[in-house]
Write a structure and sequence with these properties.
Layout lengths: L1 H16 L16 H8 L2 H22 L6 H24 L6 H23 L7 H26 L2 H28 L2
Helix pairs in contact: 3-4, 4-5, 5-6
Amino acid sequence: MLEIILAIVAAMVRSFTSLELEPHFNKPHLSTSARDFWGKRWNLMVTSILRPTVYEPSLRIFSTVIARKWAPLPSAFVTFVVSGLMHELIFYYLGRCIPTGEVSWFFAIHGLCVASEIGLKKALSGKCEVPWLFTGPLTLGFVLGTGIWLFIPQLSRCKVDVRAFEEYAQRGSLLKRSSEMIIGILSGC
């Protein structure tokens, strides 16, 4: 749904301004792992913001404490924790609902999975490659399952969908009144 909305907005911007916006998604349904999904395919704008502001600074810090080879594990986890806290704050401002922590848990779980994946790949050094036929559906099932379990309930509890439709109705009413006023002014000329 988010992908569709952002694609429509990008098309409108492109048609009015001739600007080409960077894509927000890169075929997330073709993800091969949690790391691939979050790092290269889903919400690329957020990834491009979190990488230099959270992941890379924490990587530098953890590299001084543990071996550089293993520093990406806690850095990835910290990045997901920050993303979870940011989402809790966004949901609070969208719906004025007291955070329950479910959204933070969603991102913490995914952060643990991404960190585990990084660790396994480093430990195995490319000795074991699992085919996409297995990893693709498993990745999407995991993202969807945890999203339905922890992410969607917060959206429902805050009635984000109801508030969005109310805002759309208000904007439509404003547009209708404005266009009627402009037509009235133009017909009086």
